[in-house]
Design goal:
Two copies of one chain form a homodimer. Chain A is mainly α. Chain A contains six helices and two strands; from the N terminus they run H-H-E-E-H-H-H-H. Chain A folds into two domains: 1-73, Multidrug-efflux Transporter Regulator, Chain: A, Domain 2 (Orthogonal Bundle), CATH 1.10.1660; 88-133. Chain A has helices at residues 3-9, 14-22, 41-55, 60-71, 75-115, 120-123, and strands at residues 30-31, 37-38. In chain A, strands 1-2 form a two-stranded antiparallel ribbon. In chain A, strand 1 and strand 2 form a beta hairpin. In chain A, helix 3 runs antiparallel to helix 4 (60-71). The complex binds zinc ion (ZN) (4 copies). Chain A binds a DNA duplex (30 and 30 nucleotides) through residues 2-4, 13-16, 18-19, 23, 34-37, 54, 59-60.
DNA sequence: CTTGACATTGGAGCCGCTCTAGGGTTTAGC
DNA sequence: GCTAAACCCTAGAGCGGCTCCAATGTCAAG
């Protein structure tokens, strides 16, 4: 299978696949006579795992490592590490969501102040730094 | 005032300030005899606005542009543009928060499946691509 | 005088792609 | 057989917004 076909099947792009390869995150595939990359079903399966793990927003290196292990049959260990990674990611998500919601409330408040005639300087307070130093 | 002092007052770093300057987002400050950057209160005020706007997570270029305009006295217009930018940013935030919450639910579901003995491959479904093509 | 904190410059590194330039190859229709 | 579209190749730049590094210069306190 050629790179475009593989990319389409996994809803990614040839660029991304080549990028993973350059980074050493995927086994170097065979080449046809015309130098086109030629992927097996096993290659595809491994990449499918990698892409799937990336969609969980795991760091690329970790996603690639887990995909490699799993393909090599260490599914138990992958399962373990994955549970751990998921729990960490969920904590990170909770923090991030809180941040974004906080920012949203701040923006709502600001919009209100601007609407009632406050100047930008007055509104972008930042605490007028010097006061609390 | 030197760059370190200014950075501390605005809770940013000398690196960041020089970075803004290199990007042409801040007026080039005067230099002392020793070639150290020397900032006036007006410089500080302008940077304060920039930093404040960045904390609202406006794009750097836009934050810098608004800070410049405001410093130049076009506060009305800034106020207008800022309201618009805030409303757009809030939409973006809503979308982003939805995404993150969706991912969080997915992760929770996955953790459950892994806990009840499913293999990673089975769980990182991705729809087993071929089916819906 | 020495030590340490501060300043200077230019440039690399982070993340994970995405896109471009400048080629070569395959494929479908006519 | 020919042409045009769509694919493939490589190497490298670019994105945002800093952060950090190296190598060097400057200055205040003890
Ligand atoms: Zn496995
Ligand atoms: Zn208020
Ligand atoms: Zn103003
Ligand atoms: Zn289910």
């Amino acid at each position: 299978m050629r790179i475009g076909t593989l990319a389409e099947r996994l809803r990614t792009t040839p660029h991304a696949i080549r990028f993973y390869e350059r980074r050493g995150l995927l086994p170097v595939p065979q080449r046809a006579d015309n130098r086109y990359r030629s992927y097996t079903e096993q290659d595809a399966e491994r990449l499918r795992l990698l892409v799937g793990l990336r969609q969980l927003d795991l760091p690329l290196e970790q996603a690639a490592a887990l995909a490699g292990m799993c393909t090599a049959g260490h599914c138990e260990q992958v399962s373990e590490e994955l549970r751990e990674a998921i729990s960490q990611k969920r904590e990170e998500l909770r923090r991030r969501i809180d941040e974004l919601q906080f920012l949203d409330r701040r923006l709502a408040h600001l919009a209100g102040q601007l609407g009632s005639g406050e100047t930008p300087q007055a509104v972008i307070t930042l605490g007028k730094e010097e006061r609390d130093v």
